[in-house]
Amino acid sequence: MARTATTAAAAPARRAVGRPSKGAIKKEAIVAVALEQIDKVGVYAFSLRDVARSLDVYPATIYWHVNSKDALLADVAGAVMQEVTPPRGKSSWQVWMRDLFFRYRAAVQKHPNVAQLIGAQLVSNSSLRTDLIDGVLIALLEAGATEENLLEAYNCVISSLIGFMTMELAPMPSEEVSQWADALKERVRSISPLDHPTLARYLPKLANKAFIVRWQNGTEVPLDSSFSANVEIFIAGLESFLQKKTRAVAASETRKSRS
Amino acid sequence: MARTATTAAAAPARRAVGRPSKGAIKKEAIVAVALEQIDKVGVYAFSLRDVARSLDVYPATIYWHVNSKDALLADVAGAVMQEVTPPRGKSSWQVWMRDLFFRYRAAVQKHPNVAQLIGAQLVSNSSLRTDLIDGVLIALLEAGATEENLLEAYNCVISSLIGFMTMELAPMPSEEVSQWADALKERVRSISPLDHPTLARYLPKLANKAFIVRWQNGTEVPLDSSFSANVEIFIAGLESFLQKKTRAVAASETRKSRS
DNA sequence: ACCTGAACACCGTTCAAGT
DNA sequence: ACCTGAACACCGTTCAAGT
Question: Which of chain D's bases lie under 7 Å from a protein CB?
Answer without folding.
Answer: 1-7, 10-16
